Fold each of these.
Amino acid sequence: MTLLPYRANVGALLFNPAGQVLVARRADMPNAEGAAGGWQLPQGGIDAGEDLRRAVLRELAEEIGTDRAEILAEHPEWLSYDFPPELQAMRIARKYRGQRQKWFALRFTGQDSDIRLDADPHPEFDAWRWAALAELPGLAVSFKRAIYEDLVREFARFGA
């Protein structure tokens, strides 16, 4: 049996001036107000030949409606996770075994009103909020929790 490849992906920890991180609630989990897995960090695929730093700003613009941010740091490693069995029916999980991600810490340079989840005609998120960096692992779905724990350690110097 041949294993499927990982999908190349970028992720963003967008810090506000108070050191909190933007988390967004998945539109397909609208009743997950405080539940683990309903909230996540912006992330998305990398286009062929696309510069990673440009990709993370593009993903922010697509997912939260603004790219008003400056890159503070890049995680030194690629992080990956496998899709769990319950997601195997998803279209993306039929092509990829999981995601291989390059994460960035960014400073938000805009105003809260710049964040527009409805900028995309098919928004991935239906709500957003600022969260303490330490909250991230508790908000993550189980298969992303180790990555979020790593991100908290790596980017602790930017968080509150």
Amino acid sequence: MQVFFGPPHGDAVPHGCALTIGNFDGVHHGHQKMLARLSDAARARHLPAALLTFEPHPREVFARGNPPARLSTLRDKLAFLEAQHLLDYVFVFRFNRPFASLTAEAFIRQVLVEELHTRYLLIGDDFQFGAKRQGNFELLASCPDFVTEAMPSVLVAGERASSTRVRECLAGGDLAAAERLLGRPYQLSGRVMHGQKLGRTIGFPTANIHLPHRKPPLHGVFVVEVDGPFGRKGGVASLGQNPTVTDTLNFKLEVHLFDCSADLYGQRLTVHFLKKLRDEARYDDLTELVAQIERDAASAQTYLTSLQRENA
């Protein structure tokens, strides 16, 4: 899978491509089904399969004060897409006000026809585009340069698979429902950064993982499994604003790994969220906080042990 930031250069798609368009935030089951259908259509037409996606998320541009929580970073999204083995190209276009001001007709002519040489287009059944979202399936279908087809909604356990629904499940602490929609446990990744180093003084050293987006889709205390240079280890994680020891409004992801004493600063870790234990809370003093962390760690270890027995 080759990634272009902007239109392709050279002779990447001289004879056209089979294309789909979308944010693909989280790359859930609905996205995966769309990619599979796109891949089939591309092979039947002897075309490369391609995705046009955007950075930042368009809603982050239009709702600067209160954007939706991002499910995945661009880095993780590209990794998820590559893991599907269904795309030849991904075109990441910068989404900004000038780009958003393109009329639907200009988007078709400039982007789809002239830059991406689209020959086949697969879109979601609710896809809208262009300035004031005036473009729709009927306008695309009227374009003689490519064939346009619509993908119906994908249902998982009777509900529509969508990034919005995944966000709702995560915000409500229903990690099992989110996992069903995603096809995997929800995960976040980032580099370990220096923090206050309070954890090591109270017997629970933590890896402070950088969050590239200000607003994560879930918060609380969780049972986790973490991938890193040590392989995979279980642990307990706090994702929130840590009200007992800080007054900041910034979110922090702090992970205490079981049976790990390695120096992790600068390492990239991937945190898989398995079960929510509780909401974040403020404690009157560190003694009370430590007692709660001990209970959380014990609960997490019990859960991980039961999970190992189920998978044995």
Amino acid sequence: MTDDEEMTIHRGSGCFWTDQGYPNPAEMSVKSRLCGRVTEILLARGWGPLAAAEATGLGADLFALADRGQLSKFSVGELIEALTRLGADILITVGEAREGERGLALVQGVDDDE
């Protein structure tokens, strides 16, 4: 960019998946958080793709896709099942959305800030 060119700045929505134009940003956000937690557990245990596949029931090739952010190959259910096989507890809470607003799908770990 040269000095005489103008830069346009666009404010994001706060959701990467929405800003990238995904048709299902809430689902992608949930998948991303779940997949990130699976990855954290596997890294802490020092497991590679083969050990991870054996422990989770997912294909070893899927872990390479997850590392590249290609989450469309996973379902939320598969990621929840993988986490429980890795010893994680899953708590799903359904509550009321704020009046006039659409509900949210959130994933929060026990170590996340409230």
